[in-house]
Amino acid sequence: MRGNEFLEKMGLIAPEYIEEAEAKQKRRKNPWLKWLAAAACICILAGVVLSVDFYEPPQEPETSAPGEGPPNFTENGIKYFISPYADSVYKELPEGFVYAGETDAGGFENCPYYINPDMPEWVFVYHEVRTNGEVDSSGTIIPAEPHDAYVRYVDERLRGKDLVCVSGDYYISMWSAKPYGNNPDVSDEYYDEMERKYGVRIEGEPPEGFVLMGTTEFSGHDTVPKGNLVSNEGELEVYTNPDNPEIIYVSTFWHTHTAEEKTQTKHEGFNVYIKYDCPFAE
Fold first, then answer.
1. How many CA atoms lie within 13 A of 281 on its CB side?
2. Is the pLDDT of residue 65 over 70?
3. What does 25-65 look like in DSSP terms, one character per residue?
4. How far is residue 119's CA from residue 48's CA, in Å, rounded to a whole number?
5. What single-letter DSSP state applies at residue 14?
6. Measuring CA to CA, how many Å separate 258 from each of 202, 228, 261?
């Protein structure tokens, strides 16, 4: 169900009520709670729920308890986590998202949250943060005075996944593909087979037959890239082989500093991406 059908089914309330909900003062359970995600993270806490079954109205959330990792919620068997990227904090609600109810989030009560029927993998929660989503030259989050903002949460099947779309076909990095646990990206048998054949990363030149296809267009963090050559990581050089469409190679570099190395050593090579049945691909 999409568009007007969804709004009618939800019985969307008048815009003035939405504005009232956006401005509503939230009752505090406890002071600001800090949580730090690995790599590029935001120092904000929140937990929220969103019913992704658009045939039913929003339901009561099932949120994570303190100490269970990054803020998350489970609804209809799917977990949503706070985005790990700094650019997930918004001053204004993105276009297309509508008020869907209130939930407890990150130590606060009655936080308004917003969904988009055409983008069910995202939900925005309005709550207190201590950053404007800006980073310094080293990639460290720049702190800010406490204020309310719209914060992006992402379906766990998409959160942190490195995806490249090549002519409508999806590939996922071996580094970010999850073969085990709940909602695996690929089967463990398939992952193990690809790892045996190609590894996770190679150093040096691309294998014979793989040539530069071009540089990807960046679709944005936490997005599903769509198009001829698009990535949700950034602008990447992609190498393909028409005789071997099951993988692509993406150029990369990394550093090592072992006990034998006096200084850091830079390595150049390629990350391996395997064919992926993207659950959000239309």
1. 17
2. no
3. PPPBSSS------SSS-------------TTS-----EEPP
4. 16
5. P
6. 19, 40, 5
The conformation of residue 25, written as its DSSP 8-state character, comes to P
Sign of the dihedral through C-alpha 35, 70, 108, 154 = positive
Cβ atoms of residues 127 and 151 within 8 Å: yes
**Nearest Cα to Cα of residue 60 among 110, 8, 9:** 110
Question: In what helix (H) or strand (E) does residue 193 lie, and over which residues does it extend?
Answer: helix 188-198
> pTM of the entire structure?
0.73
61 in Cβ contact with 104 (< 8 Å) = yes
Do residues 80 and 125 touch, judged by C-beta distance below 8 A? no
Backbone angles phi, psi at 20, to 5 degrees: -65, -40
Sign of CA dihedral 209, 211, 216, 222: positive
Domain boundaries of the chain, sorted by first residue: 3-155, 163-276
Length of the chain: 282
Q: Please report, as a single letter, which amino acid is at residue 179.
A: P
Is residue 265 pLDDT above 60, yes or no?
yes
Give the number of C-alpha atoms closer than 13 A to the C-alpha of residue 199, restricted to the C-beta side: 9
Round to whole Å and give the CA distance between 39 and 170: 25
Question: Environment class of residue 42 by beta-carbon count within 10 Å: exposed (0-12), middle (13-18) or buried (19+)?
Answer: buried
Cα–Cα distance between 18 and 29 in angstroms, integer? 23
Query: What is the mean predicted confidence (pLDDT) over 236-265?
Result: 93
Q: Is pLDDT above 60 for 12?
A: no
